[in-house]
Amino acid sequence: MRNRRSGRALNKNRFELPNDVALHVEKVDKRFILERKKWYRYIFSLFKNEPTKYFQALEGVTFEVGRGEVIGLIGLNGSGKSTLASLLAGHLAPTSGNIRRNGVASLLAINSGMKPNLTGIENIRLKLLLMDFKPAEIKRRVRSIVEFTELHDFIYQPLKHYSSGMRAKLGFAIAVQTDPDILIIDEALSVGDQTFYQKCLQEIERFKQEGKTIFFVSHAISQIREISDRVAWIHYGQMKMLGNTEEVCLEYSKFIHHFNKKSKPERLREQQEMMNSQKRNLTSRQKMYRKTNLWQQLISFSTILLILIISAWQMFQN
């Protein structure tokens, strides 16, 4: 626990966020390269003026969240909600922009960080070990997590035999018992039973009272309305709206109603057009930066190769 506390203090001092601010996101872009080339093709691409195709998953996302807030994230499939959730948790790094956290973030998604061949109890211990808990603390928390999951004897079965609801129970129990400052829930509560969902709501309310911050990703507008203080509408990589829950949910419901009235070919065509607009070519400035970066990688690779050749020659001489 000492490392986690010191990590929090370092994070806070480094970014100098106010105490009442949990997270600050500033002009965040996230791009994924669509063409993966083998290492030797990068050498030839240095001398060619070929644009690199990429997918703009997020563009210019900026917002700030206070302590104790519950923020809902809504949007169509492929809009970038899960990408944003992974960025907020630190599982992905932004291509550009800054994400500043005032504390430790934890992502709860089905199968997130879980090993399918390990049992439920082994996954719990592994997660706690990776978070640097001491053996005595792990033993105490394992007991609390097992009781919260209500999985009974299934806790000793491999995770690959679990249903999606059982995995969600295990993931949520681990997340809340490790006491993160920022909890990000990505569609994990949509697969559980109603009894466990109400239990989760009680824990979310407890987190709010303790000043924890929660991001809730869901397609269920009813859940978003029930849980969230504010809602962010992500529309194909851009922040379309961020504000009062009822206001944003009403506008999103109107959009969904209008979208669903279209025929299936029209909906698919519109989605494809929006996704194609996110597929772009690198600009000349970005290509220049990419070539400079590739030259640096080539020099590093050549240096390592030279060291290996010299070492092999010395071994041969000996």
UniProtKB/TrEMBL annotation:
This is Teichoic acids export ATP-binding protein TagH. The keyword Transmembrane applies. The chain crosses the membrane at residues 294-316. It comes from Listeria fleischmannii subsp. fleischmannii. The keyword Cell membrane does not apply. Residues 41-261 form the ABC transporter domain. It comes from the Bacteria. PROSITE patterns: ABC_TRANSPORTER_1, ABC_TRANSPORTER_2. Keywords: ATP-binding, Hydrolase, Membrane, Nucleotide-binding, Translocase, Transmembrane, Transmembrane helix, Transport. One of its GO terms (cellular component) is membrane. Coiled coil: none annotated.
